[in-house]
Structure formats: structure tokens, C-alpha cells
Write a structure and sequence with these properties.
The chain has helices spanning 12-25, 45-51, 63-77, 92-107, 122-133, 151-160, 236-249, 274-290, 293-311, 318-330, 361-364, 376-384, 386-397; strands at 3-7, 28-35, 56-61, 111-113, 138-140, 174-177, 182-185, 215-222, 225-229, 232-233, 254-260, 266-272, 336-343, 346-353. With 401 residues, it is α/β, with parallel strands linked by helices. The chain folds into two domains: 3-63 and 81-171, HUPs (Rossmann fold); 181-291 and 333-353, Argininosuccinate synthetase, chain A, domain 2 (Alpha-Beta Complex), CATH 3.90.1260.10.
Length: 401
């Protein structure tokens, strides 16, 4: 019997895929659940996967490499998709795919299966990663093959086979949770006019329900990587957990957006990324202090392309890897401490310092100084504005003005 390794979450889609694969392919199904920090969701998976027909299940703790190998490179790049989305699902998929390939090779499997729909981005992210890592593996995408046409159909399919599922027709949201974020899609959110319900949020509270007093914290970075929280060294996973907790309590990191999917349609999602939002704000503030103008502005352009590559599933592409090398070169002096204030959904930088600061109070002061000759600005402006002056003279001579 051929073996298929399934990316398994225990959610609605992958719960029904195990029996569907066995019924339609006559194969042995090996489930793999990646522990990326989704917490209590993992507890019942082993028993559930076996009961629904899997021959075995791997539950892989990938939290550390998720943070160090995927989150931190994206954070250092400053990559944000369409100005809002911090890519929490996007960079989780190539990590999951990498482990799926490793298990498939270990087990002698011929194919990898996933529960991503034919309308979404995740199918691309999974499959491009598999192709990059092991092009000999087949890929089975049930949502592109079966007769199930909706989440309601999938719920009925599961009920007919006695498969317990974590959703119902009254709360039919599609959610993806990991250490970085929690996403919500579907249900009443499919209408962009509908405000998210107050009970939607699971990582924190709505901003209006946050405390009336602000919370202050300090983050220390070394070469673009966060190392300390409030002066104490802290491990990467523990740091994100702590920032998620304090950020969530203050309603930080909630994003409601209509985004452009890679497959051509727009979709509406609500994202909770409390710890990630804090890190992005702090990292940007430190870069503004330590990077020169030309490098900072060029890096802003790189960030847009980097975000698109990650969003589009091209983590293992040569361009993403090359851009990551450029980003690393920019981070050698991004070291220092950032103080932030969290208050009712906002995350504000209130102080920043670095031994490599390019800010000079002596040059920038509005008071008396002995280092800057203001008369020098005249010659600079004359040269900088020379093209404009020549154009204006030409237009005057030609009677165009």
C-alpha cells in the first residue's frame, strides 16, 4: 500500500481528508502536525488522527526554528504585505512543507497531501515548497478533486462518518493559529461591511476593552534580532509568548483588511498579531536611528518585494535568499534598545538608543552649534536645483511660460 503524508491540523478540512484519501486512493495515511505554538489545539490530535484512519501521526515541535529561521529573517527585512499583513500564515507553510518532505523521505512515501482550498494561497505555498525541496514527490490536493464544494458540505461529510470537528455552522470561521498570529476568515467576515464580532478575538481583547492605563516595555536588539525584554535576556519562543500576552491584553495587533490573493481574488481577513506588531514597531525605530538614508530607503523598496515573495510561496526561491543576504548585511549595526508604550490598541515608540546611532544632537539642534555652517546649504541648493533652473530657463526662452 502506498504511503501519503498529510499536513494535519485536526481542523475541519484535514479531519475529513484522512478518510477521503483512504476511500479514494486506498493508501496508508501518515499525518504530520506541526507545533508552531498553537497551544491546546495539539492535545487531542494524536488520538483523533488515529481514530479517523491515520496509520501514525508525527507531532513535530518546530517553534524554535519557526522563530529563528522564518520569523526573524522576515522581521529584519521589514516585510509587510500590502501595508498591513505581517505574513503569519505565509512563512509558516514553507517550514511545514520542509518537515513534510523530510518525513515523506524517511517513510518512503510517494505523495504529500494538504487541506488548502483551490481558492487560497496556501496551496501555492505548500506545493512550491515541496517542488523546491523534492520534485519527485506527488502532491494530492483534495479540495481540487472531491465533490465537497463548501465548508457546510465538509461538516456534513464529517458528521456522516462520526468525525468530531472544531467548527459548526454557527461559527464557521477558518482559523490559522501559530506563535506569531491568529487569522480569521469566512462566515460573516466574508462581507467587508460587517464589523468583526467582539467575541472573535482569541489572543487578546478589542482595543476598547483594553486597560485604561498604558503598559511600557523595553526591547533590546543585537544585529536586528531581539535579545532582551525589559533588560533580561529571553529565548526567542519565550519572548514571543510574553509579547503576545502583554500585547493582547492591550488590544495591540488587530488588523482587518481586504487583501489581494495570489490566485486573483480579493479576500477579507482579520488577523491578531500582538507580539509581532510590537517587534516590527521596535525594529523599525532602531533602523531609523542606525541606518543611513540611502540604505534605509532602498531597504524599504526591498521590503515590498520580500513580502510579495513570502506571500506568494517563494520562500525557497533564489531571489528571496539573495534579498535575505542583503538584509543581513544591513543589520550589523541595528543594535540597541527601544522603549514602547501599549495603550488601547496602539503601540508607540517612546524612546530609542544605540551605540551605533547616526543621530547627532550636535548637528540636529535648533540651538547654537559649532559644527554646522548654515551658509553651506546655499551652494548645495544651487547644485541640487540646477536641473529645475535650466528647465525653467528653457521654457521661458521657448515662450512656454
Amino acid at each position: 500500500m502506498k504511503k501519503v503524508v498529510l499536513a494535519y491540523s485536526g481542523g475541519l478540512d484535514t479531519s475529513v481528508i484522512i478518510p477521503w484519501l483512504k476511500e479514494n486512493y486506498g493508501c496508508e495515511v501518515i499525518a504530520m502536525a506541526a507545533d508552531l505554538g498553537q497551544g491546546e489545539e495539539l492535545a487531542p490530535l494524536k488520538e483523533k488522527a488515529i481514530k479517523t484512519g491515520a496509520s501514525k501521526i508525527y507531532i513535530e515541535n518546530l517553534q524554535e526554528e519557526f522563530v529563528t529561521d522564518f520569523i526573524y529573517p522576515t522581521l529584519k527585512a521589514g516585510a509587510v504585505y500590502e501595508g498591513k499583513y505581517l505574513l503569519g500564515t505565509s512563512f509558516a507553510r514553507p517550514l511545514i512543507a520542509r518537515r513534510l518532505v523530510e518525513i515523506a523521505e524517511k517513510e518512503g512515501a510517494v505523495a504529500i497531501a494538504h487541506g488548502a482550498t483551490g481558492k487560497g494561497n496556501d496551496q501555492v505555498r505548500f506545493e512550491l515548497s515541496v517542488k523546491a525541496l523534492n520534485p519527485d514527490l506527488e502532491i494530492i490536493a483534495p479540495w481540487r478533486l472531491w465533490d465537497i464544494k463548501s465548508r457546510e458540505d465538509a461538516i456534513d461529510y464529517a458528521a456522516a462518518r462520526g468525525i468530531p470537528i472544531p467548527v459548526n455552522k454557527e461559527r464557521p470561521y477558518s482559523m490559522d493559529r501559530n506563535l506569531w498570529h491568529l487569522s480569521h476568515e469566512g462566515g460573516d467576515l466574508e462581507d467587508p461591511w460587517n464589523e468583526p464580532k467582539r467575541d472573535l478575538y482569541l489572543l487578546g481583547v478589542a482595543p476598547e476593552d483594553a486597560p485604561d492605563e498604558p503598559t511600557y516595555l523595553e526591547l533590546g536588539f543585537e544585529q536586528g534580532i531581539p535579545q532582551t525584554l525589559n533588560g533580561e535576556e529571553i529565548a526567542p519562543v519565550a519572548l514571543l509568548a510574553a509579547l503576545n500576552e502583554v500585547g493582547g491584553k492591550n488590544g495591540v495587533g488587530i488588523v482587518d483588511m481586504v487583501e489581494n490573493r495570489l490566485v486573483g481574488m480579493k479576500s477579507r481577513g482579520v488577523y491578531e498579531t500582538p507580539g509581532g506588531t510590537i517587534l516590527y514597531q521596535a525594529h523599525q525605530a532602531l533602523e531609523q536611528l542606525t541606518l543611513d538614508r540611502v540604505t534605509y530607503h532602498y531597504k524599504e523598496q526591498i521590503a515590498l518585494r520580500y513580502a510579495e515573495l513570502v506571500y506568494d510561496g517563494l520562500w525557497y526561491s533564489p531571489l528571496r535568499e539573495a534579498l535575505a543576504a542583503f538584509v543581513d548585511a544591513t543589520q550589523k549595526n541595528v543594535t540597541g534598545t527601544v522603549r514602547l508604550k501599549l495603550y488601547k490598541g496602539s503601540c508607540t515608540v517612546t524612546g530609542v538608543k544605540s551605540p551605533y546611532s547616526l543621530y547627532s544632537e550636535e548637528f540636529a539642534t535648533f540651538g547654537r552649534d559649532g559644527v554646522y555652517n548654515q551658509k553651506d546649504a546655499e551652494g548645495f541648493i544651487n547644485l541640487f536645483g540646477l536641473p529645475l533652473k535650466v528647465k525653467a530657463l528653457m521654457e521661458k526662452k521657448a515662450g512656454l511660460r
